[in-house]
Amino acid sequence: MLSEIAFYGAIETGLIYGLVAFGIYISFRVLDFPDLTVDGSFPLGAAVAAVLIMQGWNPWVATGAAVLAGMAAGAVTAMLNVKLKILNLLASILTMIALYSINLRVMGRPNIALLGEETVLTPWYSLDLAYHQVPVLLFVIVVFIALILLWRFMKSETGLAMRATGANPRMARAQGIATGAMIILGVAVSNGLVGLAGALFAQSQGAADVTMGVGVIVIGLASLIGGEAVITPTTVIRALVACVVGAIIYRLAIALALNADFLGFKAQDLNLITAILVTLAIVLPGARNSLVNKLTRKKA
Amino acid sequence: MISATDLQLTFGKGTPLENPALRGMSLTVNQGEFVTVIGSNGAGKSTFLNALAGEVLVDSGNIVVDNLNVTKLSTHKRAGRVARVFQDPLAGTCEGLSIEENLALAIKRGQRRGLSAAVKKQYMEQFRESLSSLNLGLEDRLGDKMGLLSGGQRQAVSLLMASLTPSNILLLDEHTAALDPKTAAFVLALTTKIIEEQKLTALMVTHSMKQALEVGTRTVMLHQGQVVFDINGKDREGLEVKDLLDLFEKQRGLSVDDDSLLLG
């Protein structure tokens, strides 16, 4: 039903969206800050990395610059909210819209092809692995490192202060936590991760495109919510693992839906399928509970 | 020592809902004093506490804590000097975090927070010891989520958290009001015990005149954003609720028609 290449492709994209889901976990779950900046910071990361690679920069340095660019975008959103008191959702939409222009400026044109350029993946192709397995191996390592770092951070004094900021800002202030600074730091880190995802995505797909960010927020949320439905996020580590698992499941589900001929889906149906999957992921856990309740009530 | 001088604060200035909450409030609390604050609804008790904590900034006047003028400082910058327990038992703790994580947050109150692990082994002895003083068995449940605890238990932990690190003043904002009578008595007894043992300086707002006279070393009554009377030492000994009401009427030439003052 699913070819080997399609399978590895789904895992590869799933791992990248796992990084996006980490970012969305920080903004939506830890900080309770609905942040749509990601639709702009994902292509921003891709654009920055692509432009620098084209100029002959080391691809890892270019990827690092993409992370910093994403963090800057996140910091702008958070400052609009914290310093100028603009509603968080609206602040993120403003940054997202502004980034569309900025991304065009960064690239100088709507898209940049990276075919034949040296990317972070290039050295790994000399390994004795099938072509489609190489990105999976590299991204597993990247996602694993990001997961460990994030986990350690969330358990640190500053990370705990950030979690308190999102959960109970009044209590956080009373404990001497600068909640505004925590929101800025958190949203910056969140978008830094999304910038990283964008940079890696551009390098694995061989192109950066100004429209590649459309719907990233929905896919990230789908991964987050789907992951949480599979792995109950009772601890930080479980929540982070759920992000990655959710992203991979989501990509596999999409690949299956598109590959299953009897369903009749085509590539253009992607966003529709995404919307349906997100709706199911949100509704199903509740529906399951009420079904269980009904069944047990009948027994009693 | 904490001193507030001529605090003025009006909410909704220039609107039909303009509400002068503090009108020249002045109060000095000396080191080691335990002041109970009473007053009817709208007297400015909570606003006064919020002003001391930094949750609201006053229009004019000065607040000095231990020789530092904190009038314009935001809440988190004062937190090292001012500890606080809220009225809502759920407000003082984070339900999604474990008991030890909540305590770890509190042990760094007002200090720099770095990237080292928040819950450190060296804290555990202190955490267990202070939790066991509550006699609630919480010392064996350090890893449990705060949300699993009852309101009374959470308020007791809030109180511990406020006293985990030294402060210049402990603000208690009707912190027993939302609890059932038995739990309220337990939390109040715990409060006096902690304040006496650690020789804390404290300001406790209460709705109950009886409670205001039974605990603490000094009682202050607020009315319309001002201190209307302030009694301590010998004058306060043997005073009863009725005496307080008489005192209030004499001071203001008013009769008290607010039932809430008589309750308790």
Give structural attributes.
heterodimer; A: 300 residues; mainly alpha; ABC transporter involved in vitamin B12 uptake, BtuC; two-stranded antiparallel sheet; 11 helices; 2% strand; B: 264 residues; alpha/beta; Rossmann fold; six-stranded mixed β-sheet; four-stranded antiparallel β-sheet; 8 helices; 10 strands; globular
Kindly provide the radius of gyration of chain A, computed on alpha-carbon positions and rounded to a whole number of angstroms.
Answer: 20 Å
Strand content of chain A: under 5%
Major sheet details of chain B:
6 strands, mixed
> What do the pLDDT scores of chain A average to?
92
As for the CATH topology of chain A, it is ABC transporter involved in vitamin B12 uptake, BtuC
Order of helices and strands of chain B: EEEHEEHEHHHEHEHEEH
Q: What is the residue-mean pLDDT of chain B, rounded to a whole number?
A: 90
- Tally of structural domains of chain B: 1
Query: Any idea of the CATH topology of chain B?
Result: Rossmann fold
Number of helices of chain B: 8
The number of strands of chain A is: 2
Q: In terms of per-residue confidence, which ranges of chain B show pLDDT below 50 for 5 or more consecutive residues? A: none
CATH class of chain A: Mainly Alpha
Strand order of the largest sheet of chain A: 1-2
Counting helices, strands and paired strands, the structural category of chain A is mainly alpha
Measured on Cα atoms, how large is the radius of gyration of chain B? Answer: 19 Å
Order of helices and strands of chain A: HHHHEHHHHEHHH
Q: Percentage of helical residues of chain A?
A: over 70%
Write the CATH homologous superfamily of chain B: P-loop containing nucleotide triphosphate hydrolases
Strand content of chain B: 15-25%
